[in-house]
């Protein structure tokens, strides 16, 4: 079962920051999940929706300019990274799952990805873009057909994993509190990977493995890997 660091190794470092990314890389994770959205002047920023919970700022990232965002302390004196800084930090070392936090114009996001692929900073295979907004995923697939997409859900839809197959998704990312055998089996029959979030406790990690889940998102990826290596 793969282990993705959720917002980097965010259990021990400020979430969605370069230090959380470095700690995840040190833990030799299979992938790193990060939240992405655009700020008021359209740069792709790596952060959750609101500034209040995680920084000394207030308000929404998408209503704040890059210049103001760069002044904020995201924890331990660190700044909020942009997408380019994250690509430079991770390079081709591990899978990158970018979770689009809410609907926004994706032109700059796509341009940033394509430039980095072209320059060889990242490669196509390591990238996975996910969202709860499935309309965004449709747009992305139309404009960047090679990209792997992950359909996020916090529910068990009536037709199980059918929605993700229709999206031509690579994977489904599902809340661990809703997942069940029927859903996992249905997704697998459709050729989809199943990743569960956010899985930190030993009991939950073992339960996901017993269900046949392909990967988990964990705030404590080092601990999750240790539990999984035991048996
Ligand atoms: O991408 C998995 C998970 O991060 C989705 O929800 O709220 O933890 O970003 P959230
Ligand atoms: Mg996320």
TrEMBL record:
One of its GO terms (molecular function) is phosphoric diester hydrolase activity. SUPFAM superfamilies: PLC-like phosphodiesterases. One of its GO terms (biological process) is lipid metabolic process. Residues 1-228 form the GP-PDE domain. This is Glycerophosphodiester phosphodiesterase. It comes from Pseudoalteromonas byunsanensis. The lineage of its organism: Bacteria, Pseudomonadati, Pseudomonadota, Gammaproteobacteria, Alteromonadales.
């Amino acid at each position: 079962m793969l282990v993705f660091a959720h917002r980097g190794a965010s259990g021990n470092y400020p979430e969605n920051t370069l230090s959380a990314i470095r700690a995840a890389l040190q833990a030799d994770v299979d992938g790193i999940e990060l939240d992405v959205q655009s700020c008021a002047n359209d740069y792709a920023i790596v952060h959750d929706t609101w500034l209040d919970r995680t920084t000394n700022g207030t308000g929404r990232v998408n209503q704040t300019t890059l210049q103001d965002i760069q002044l904020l302390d995201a924890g331990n004196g660190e700044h909020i990274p942009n997408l380019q800084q994250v690509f430079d930090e991770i390079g081709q070392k591990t899978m990158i799952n970018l979770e689009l936090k809410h609907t926004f114009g994706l032109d700059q996001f796509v341009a940033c990805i394509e430039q980095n692929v072209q320059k060889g900073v990242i490669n196509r295979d390591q990238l996975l873009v996910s969202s709860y907004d499935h309309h965004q995923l449709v747009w992305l697939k139309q404009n960047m057909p090679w990209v792997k997409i992950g359909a996020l859900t916090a529910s068990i839809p009536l037709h199980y994993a059918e929605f993700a197959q229709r999206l031509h998704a690579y994977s489904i990312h599902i809340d661990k509190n809703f997942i069940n055998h029927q859903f996992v089996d249905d997704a697998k029959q459709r050729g989809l990977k199943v990743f569960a979030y956010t899985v930190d406790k030993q009991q939950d990690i073992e339960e996901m493995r017993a269900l046949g889940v392909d990967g988990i998102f964990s705030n404590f990826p080092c601990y999750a890997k240790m539990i999984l290596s035991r048996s």
